[in-house]
Design goal:
- The protein has 481 residues and is mainly α.
- Helix 1 runs parallel beside helix 3, helix 3 packs across helix 14 and helix 9 runs parallel beside helix 14.
- The N and C termini lie far apart (60 Å).
- The longest helix is centred in the C-terminal third of the chain and has 38 residues.
- The chain has a domain of 313 residues: MFS general substrate transporter like domains (Growth Hormone, Chain: A, Up-down Bundle).
- The radius of gyration is 28 Å and the shape is globular.
- The chain has 17 helices and 2 strands.
- Strands 1-2 form a two-stranded antiparallel ribbon.
Length: 481
Amino acid sequence: MMSWLFFTQAAYALLGASVAGIVLDRYDFNRNLLLLCFLLLNAIFLAVIPICRTLWLLILSTAAAGFSVGILDTATNVQLIAIHGKKVSPYLQALYFSYGFGAFVSPLIAEPFLSGSPHPDIGLPAAKRGNPLPYGGMGHRSHHKLSHRPTNHMRDTFNSGSEEYKSEVEVAYWIIALAHLPVVVGLAYIVIADKWAEHKLRQAAAKAKAEKERRSSDIPDAEIQGVTTKVHLDKETLKKPSLCDNPNKTQVLCITFWTSFLVFLYDGMQGSYGGYVYTYAVKSSLRMTSAQGAFLTSVFWGSLALGRLVSIPIALFLSPAVMLLVDLIGCLVSSLLMLVFRASESALWMGTSTFGLFMSNVFPTSVALAEQYFNVTGTVTCMFVVSAAIGEMIIPLIVGKVFDYVGPMSFLAEGCILCFAAFGAYLAVLIIGKGAATHEISRREVLGEGKDDSEEDEGKPVRDTEQDSDQPSFKDKSPNR
């Protein structure tokens, strides 16, 4: 049953990410309002999940929450890229550090409300169970059937002989749902402020137009046009051409493919290493204890979170290309260190910590690198997010199968192969990106916003002054020149 819940959440998260990428490119609307709505929906679904009384209602609530998370995942990346452009790297690093921080804090919030022991009927034969299992499970032969007496097993009290079983995990869900409220309030303030600013600009445009009508032709048309078009300035600034509209489409598609392949490998490495490093430590020739294996896993995830925090100030001074080069070389050296010195426990500890440290910011840096070569749209961001999610599902499955057939040695060897493949994808992005960057710079110079053109016009010497002396000169201040 739980496997169906996890599958449903992952599937609908992918669906939400795909839908967000398409919708954000095809339709022009307030993205902050989109974030506000789905963040609020996600909070509501999280609050509903622990009070679901049937399995199918639980699956539907989980699917809706996963869909909302998928929308938010793509929309936050797109909004940050749209706002900050080529300077987005430190902001993406902060975003992904927030993901890691939330994953770290959530179990700490839930832990005080867990019972600390499983349901007393779990593990007993079906005939000896006095109560149905949580969510109506009735044993290995009928685990898919629901109880005839629906009860809220997350909330209710269970009696087993003289013992009393309590579960208050719903409180943890509600606390995390309430934690959404400050962000919801902040987004609501931004949406209202944007609408108010747009309303004031429209009033200014109407006032200028009325003033023009009163004073006839005293005010030039350029003045009115500048005020009117300023109303839609924010929308025009955030609007980007679609992937198919890009004049350098072939190079853009190639960069998108290789970047997607890079994040596919990255998320696959992260999921497989975090999931199997414990098994490798216990079953390899090192024969580490279970406690050591668990602590080694914690070191990996801790170094991953630390790397995301450290990368925020580093991204202010280093370009995405240099950061990604250092990250991939660090991952490659760490994996080779663990493979060559596989008989050393110290090498495994050192390699695990550095592997997580350098792997931490590969995804946001890859997205920032792609933004250096072309405008990353919602569709492109969707490709990155979906590729990473697919890699996190497929590669750990392959690593686990090979681990079972070949043995623990394959775990480190596969890590090295994936690192070499990721480095090759990085080189492909750099090689193809040189031509794309040159073409993009030329296109932006030709299609400038008018500021550079006006500055060049001001720098030119004024000619034919005698012919223009009787004509009033007005400078076009329209932002869409």
